[in-house]
Amino acid sequence: MRNYLLRLGWAHGDDEIISTAQAIEWFDLSGVGRSPSRLDFAKLDNLNGHYLREADPGRLVGLIASRLVPDGTLTQEQEARLLAGMGGLKARAKTGSNWRKMRHSMLQRGRWPSTRRRRDWPRRRPGAWLQLWATRFAHLEDWSEPSIETEVRKFAESQGVKLGNVAQPLRAALTGSTTSPGIFEVARVLGRDESIARMADFGTLPND
Length: 208
Description:
By secondary structure, the protein is an all-alpha fold. It is built from twelve helices and no strands. Helix 5 runs antiparallel to helix 11, helix 8 (126-137) crosses helix 10 and helix 8 (126-137) packs antiparallel against helix 12 (192-203).
């Protein structure tokens, strides 16, 4: 916020990212502009996103806990998941409110997306796919992002469909949403047991 307010009426060349220490060192009255200032909230969001990406993951987990659970107290498992996934999560967020969507993907089971969105999926039963994946992934020894991605790609090839057609039902099962951080990253953060449980749960739901 200091960085943003400072730049409303003062400039140091073309620099947009200016730390407090740099501002103290660089500030000079000659840099004060004469033009009226204009609030640009999109620019503020972008600047805030920069500082979120630079922030310590542990500090961010503590700051957003109250946004994710009613009493602001995370279990050890929830905290571990958030820490494990914070690298990817903070790379996509611009404000703290963006992380409310993580409640489903990281902390609790999600729900199927709307009927309208599900019509975009292949006519082949995604529920049956998820049931099959729950079985296949149970035997996957290397639970890493490359290993999970390789398994999903192999399945897409075996079905003669594009990776996106396969990844979308998987994303819905693991996160309860049609948008999320990288789905293989989400699976890695959730861990084998939770990922398989979500696949199995959603695989039993009826198709539209």
